[in-house]
Amino acid sequence: MSVIDKDSIKKKLDSGEFKSCDKPTGASAGWWQSFKRIQDGKENIIPFVTCIQCKTILSYDAQKTGSKTLKLHYENFKIRPVIAPKITTHFTSQKYDKVSIHCEYWSYGHE
C-alpha cells in the first residue's frame, strides 16, 4: 500500500471508500470504546484509527507504535471535553439586507 496521509483517509471515510470497524479482538482497555479501526476498499486494516468522539485520525500499528498515543488522546479528551459552536442565523427584512449570526459555544461529554 502506498503512503497515505490523514486528510486523504478522512476524505475516503467521508466518501465511503474506507470504512471503520471494531477494535482489535485482543484490545480490552475501556478506552478502546472511543476508537474505530479503519479498513481500505479491499477490507484491509490500515495503520490508523478514528476517534469516535472528535473524529480525529490517529496512527495506530500495534507492532510499531503501540496504543499509548490512543490512550493519551482518550485521557486528554476526558479532561477537556470538545467545545463545539452552535450557530443560529437570523434573517432580517430585505429593506436592510442584513443577516445576523449568533454563535454560542457548548460542550458535550463522551461518557
TrEMBL record:
It comes from the Eukaryota. This is BED-type domain-containing protein. The lineage of its organism: Eukaryota, Metazoa, Spiralia, Gnathifera, Rotifera.
